[in-house]
Write a structure and sequence with these properties.
The protein has 477 residues and is an alpha+beta fold. It is built from 13 helices and 23 strands. The relative contact order is 0.16.
């Protein structure tokens, strides 16, 4: 394996990107799974619907745990005694071409990897990549995946570190096979259930504002008693729930909650952390329905007020989240649905790039600081160059009767989720963030004036709020 070289110029980085990734940036080309469709007109959503077909659902559940010795985000996998990582999801059939929703217990899937995953699952389900949503829950003792970042680092003579893709490519074949085989177990969908409930003493805002600026950050595991004593701050207190039913039998339960999903990490042992535990508790409580969990817009949210990093807190946080999930389940309202009640719409977004941030990151390639630097920066640089080459990110909305789910990129601030719910108080609106991980942190325009860790790490500019809000408004109109 190549050792890190510290004399990489910005010009050489750009050249390596062009040589390794230009084709994938424009076309999404992958030898194994073909090419993604062309970028759609950003002026209006796309939609594919059909009448008269029965609405059906299939579920899939795959072990996403890497073997011992594999590369996690911040180090090697040392042993595998903890709970497994999962890739879970559903295929909805009957409303135009199938829709695939997939949630994976990894920290992020970015750029070309998003293309490859969506292409593979689209082929497996007999649909188009634009009708596939691949999201991660963002646990930190887990893999990260960006094939284009791996190519760039290899061209520069840098060890790929967390972007080493051997396991991811093997896993993707297994995941695609599971999606394909799930179609043999399609079940009718006659009803959906919606519900929501507050989760108590889990989420808190990480950004402590003093005199209009962010001072210290209340990290997800916060050992500072003074910061934990600060108010909870702006959060979305609710976990939301969307369930699919075959008459009186639940088939799948989707839940959505906005917070960073860490209790403690850097253990060298892949684990799904407290949201994965909460999901397991609910799976045991409702064993005949697959439980799929998505992390919402939790870029500026963590458990820091209620978590000092003690290992015992993982179970406590999991029980609190599972309690909210249970109350949302018990508060559910059932509605009859058919294929005509389902629509999938997308809007491609051209997010404004912070050229200053990208230049600063490129300069640091001359003296990289190790795996943390690469995990937090390379994908965002690759994303910016892909976008300048015309490769936009689609955000999507699934509507099923009175329920809407928005599928968003990056580590989105919770304000976007709250704004989306406020736009349609007449509907049950949920949000899944951590889709394409390339844009990394995405704040609000006000947040960029306040500063803080997330903003210093963000590769976009304050104008991003207007772009994303306009796209969400179109999708919810």
């Amino acid at each position: 394996m190549k050792t890190v070289k510290n004399n990489i110029s910005r010009r050489r980085f750009i050249g390596a990107f062009s040589a390794a990734s230009a084709v994938a940036a424009v076309s999404g080309h992958t030898p194994a799974y073909g090419e993604t469709a062309a970028v759609r007109n950003p002026a209006a959503p796309s939609a594919v619907r059909s009448e008269g077909e029965p609405l059906q659902i299939a579920t899939f559940d795959v072990d996403a745990t890497p073997p011992v010795g594999s590369q996690l985000v911040y180090g090697r996998m040392l042993n595998s005694w903890d709970l497994s990582l999962r890739a879970r999801g559903i295929v909805l059939s009957g409303a135009g071409k199938p829709v695939v929703l997939c949630a994976i217990d990894w920290i992020g899937i970015a750029n070309e990897s998003q293309d490859v995953f969506k292409n593979a699952l689209a082929v497996a389900a007999g649909t188009e990549p634009e009708r596939v949503a691949v999201h991660t829950l963002h646990q930190h003792d887990a893999p990260i995946c960006d094939f284009s970042a791996e190519k760039v680092m290899q061209e520069l003579g840098i060890e790929p570190h967390c972007f080493e893709s051997y396991f991811a490519r093997i896993f993707l074949e297994k995941l695609a096979r599971a999606v394909r085989e799930s179609l043999q177990r399609l079940q009718p969908v006659t009803h959906i259930g919606t519900g929501h409930a507050p989760v108590y003493q889990v989420a808190s805002n990480r950004r402590i504002i003093k005199d209009g600026q962010v001072g210290e950050m209340r990290s997800t595991a916060c050992k500072n008693p003074a910061l934990r004593a600060e108010p909870e701050g702006l959060v979305d207190p609710d976990v939301t729930l969307l369930s699919f039913w075959n008459e009186q039998a639940p088939v799948a339960v989707l839940t959505f909650y906005a917070t960073h999903p860490q209790s403690y990490y850097l253990t060298g042992i892949a684990n799904p952390d407290f949201p994965g535990l909460a999901r397991s508790f609910r799976q045991l409580a409702v064993p005949d329905a697959l439980h799929v969990h998505f992390t919402g817009a939790g870029g500026n949210i963590g458990a820091g007020k209620y978590n000092d990093g003690s290992h015992e807190n993982r179970l406590i946080l999991a029980q609190r989240l599972a309690d909210g999930m249970e109350r949302a389940w018990n508060a559910r309202t059932l509605f009859p649905v058919s294929a005509s009640d389902v629509a999938w719409d997308t809007v491609p977004v051209n997010l404004p790039v912070s050229e200053t941030h990208i230049r600063d990151v490129e300069k640091q390639f001359k003296s990289p600081t190790g795996p943390f630097f690469y995990a937090n920066n390379v994908s965002s640089v690759v994303w910016a160059k892909r976008q300048s080459a015309g490769k936009l990110i689609n955000i999507a909305r699934l509507r099923v009767g009175k329920a809407c789910v928005l599928f968003m990129p990056g580590e989105l601030f919770v304000e976007y989720q709250l704004a989306a719910k406020a736009m349609r108080p007449d509907m049950a609106v949920s949000m899944a963030a951590y889709g394409d991980y390339g844009p990394f942190y995405i704040g609000t325009s006000e947040a960029y004036r306040q500063g803080g860790y997330e903003i210093k790490s963000s590769p976009v500019t304050p104008e991003v709020e207007e772009v994303l809000t306009d796209a969400v408004r179109k999708l919810l109109k």
